[in-house]
Amino acid sequence: MTADIRKWVHIGTLEDVPREGARCVKNGDMTIAVFRTAKDDVFALEDKCPHKNGPLSQGIVHDGCVTCPLHNWVISLETGAAQGADEGHTAAFPVRLEDGQILIDLSYSHEAV
Asked: How many domains does the chain have?
């Protein structure tokens, strides 16, 4: 029998994150960017582009992706995987909304391959 152990951490409210923008939270030495889409979906990625470690939190949020401000790599908000011809990924964390409160599961990160 396996236990589903989650470490859900409250990091703020939906209103704390601008639409089509991001806010950052720290988890030890890691910075996690929390993104909000135009439709109020919320995603969390390590704030590091897989190309040259650019700050994804400063990128443009569009169509379920974020474009890195350094070299225009497009990263999936859901999986952290680079899109198109680019290859690589950044850690993606499960997120849930409860009554406008944002929770991130810090016990798990999905790294797309």
From this structure: 1
Q: Residue 73's domain is classified under what CATH number?
A: 2.102.10.10
Residue 55 falls inside a structural domain = yes
The reply to whether the predicted model has a pTM over 0.85 is yes
CA distance 72 to 39: 23
- Phi/psi for 58 (5° steps) reads -100, 5
Residue at 113 is within a domain: no
Tens digit of each residue's pLDDT (9 = 90 or more) over 59-103: 999 999 999 999 999 999 999 999 999 999 999 999 999 999 999
The 3-state secondary structure of 35-60, one letter per residue: EECCCCCEEEEECCCCCCCCCHHHCE
